[in-house]
Amino acid sequence: MQFNYKYGGSSIVKNGVSATDVNFAPDVLREPTFFVGTLDKKIPFREAISALHHVVVADFNFQPKDNSAYLAWLKGQEEIWLAEASSDLSKLQTEIHNVRTKLEGLRKERDVITKPYYKAQRDYFQYLYKRDYAAWFVLDPVITVHPDQVFFECFSKDESVYGKLSCGYDVFNNINEFKCGTTNIDYSKKLYEEFQKIRTYKETDFKIDPKGFDVKTTGEDNYREVKIDLPDSWVRGFLQVSTAMTSKKVSFELEAIDIANFISVLKRNKERKGPRSIKYILKSGEPIVAVFEPWNIEIVCNQSIYKGETSEEIRVWGRRRILLLERLLPITNKFTVHLLGSGMPSFYTAHLTSEMYFTLGLSGWTANDWTQSSQLELLAPRGLVPATTMQTVYLELRKDWFATESDIAEVLNLDVGTVNKSLETFAQAGKVIYDLKNKVYRVRELKRDGIDIESLRFSSETDKEAFKLMEQGAVSDLKVNENNNKITITGLVSNSYNTLVVIDKDLKITDASCTCNYYYKNKMTKGPCQHILATRITFDKK
Prior knowledge:
Blueprint: E1 2-8, E2 12-15, E3 19-24, E4 34-39, H1 42-56, H2 68-86, H3 90-131, E5 142-145, E6 149-155, E7 161-168, E8 172-179, E9 181-184, H4 189-195, E10 203-208, E11 223-229, H5 232-243, E12 250-255, H6 256-268, E13 277-282, E14 287-292, E15 297-305, E16 312-317, E17 334-339, E18 346-351, E19 356-362, H7 387-400, E20 402-403, H8 405-412, H9 416-428, E21 432-435, E22 440-443, H10 453-456, H11 461-471, E23 475-483, E24 486-493, E25 497-503, E26 509-514, H12 517-522, H13 530-541
Parallel strand pairs: 3-10
Antiparallel strand pairs: 1-11, 2-3, 4-8, 4-10, 5-6, 5-9, 6-7, 7-19, 12-17, 13-14, 13-16, 14-15, 17-18, 18-19, 20-22, 21-22, 23-24, 24-25, 25-26
Keywords: Coiled coil, Metal-binding, Zinc, Zinc-finger
Pfam family, one: SWIM
Organism: Flavivirga jejuensis
């Protein structure tokens, strides 16, 4: 999916002795959106916008160790070692020494010859890194101006972390002008480095430049045009995590010291086996308990009492992504945690000031592949609502830019459930976002010309067919057996295919089988068949 941007110059921060000027360059292809004001909460904003940058560059996927240099050295040494092992004559040892000396000389000559090449290669990548930042990071942050706040959104490089920084207008002084809307902003590494120079004693002007939209034909050379072809998996992941905000959640509050303790445990321990999860034990009226598996390290959050009515035990995976919250700890009053269920997305909202808050959204796992439950139901249809009704709901929301579903239902004389389904559908399409803190829906156009949600709903035809089988109730005789730290699931699909699925402690599929022709030909080399996936999804639903 291609995203097109056109920036009127580059975002800059001008740091002087007594003043700092923050000037974001917006995407001029979008509707005119601008904001001009003076920053009041300087240090919280600096730390929060920096944390947003850490989300953009985050990649928590497994990175194998680079052994290429060692293997090259080993290959060069192999003949020497073999010769030394098989030689007991001083003459041969002398020849080996001479050859080794000659080889070292040749290597030095090689280094002299290739040094300019490697220097040019390094300089080239440095040039790209500084001048063409979009080649390094897939999508510039999205910024939205509303009547009550300005908020930034981004998604991580590894497609598993969503970040949102919301700044209410009490974060600013002397707001001169603004126009509501959504645009992309040019946010480079150099800009991030300049943000680090913001100080309390410096007056800081904050500007999403309205002049960027004035130029029509003159000054065209100053525009920087960027076209990024994003993988569908990236866009799908962004929509999955942001749409999850509209789902039913278990919510509770944690103190900053609790998150600090979580981060301390993760830094001091290295897991070598599963399950790599945090198990939240929630009992009404009692302190919240977090158990870090597989070490079974228990953190009791004595100052954080669970106020829910029913007891819960919820496991979440991909826990090391919580480290992204570390920079916010010194400026955070408390955290609100929202859990959708075991293996489902989770959200951590850091309350920085009364009207500034940072939301970190985590997908169910750091890596979403076929060995795990993909949780695609987040993009499945929520309910059918007539197109005219949906359009009426959206236009009503756009009048004030944000509202609750009950307020819209009252104005339009509609059922709250109908309004809710309409807004959830718009959230799936990237046109609306749910504000977890203020519990309102907000207008936000992720892509200027809209997103074809049907093309993103499923990652493959196999996924699509698997969900169709699940929705039709084609999986029957489902049996679950837990033994030896694994779960074995058997079922009958479409009254024809016997399936078996084995899941480990991290809820990954470690083995599976089916009696269909696809499995007979490919086994699991090309991923599971639709019958295996349907069995797994039905198990998750139950």
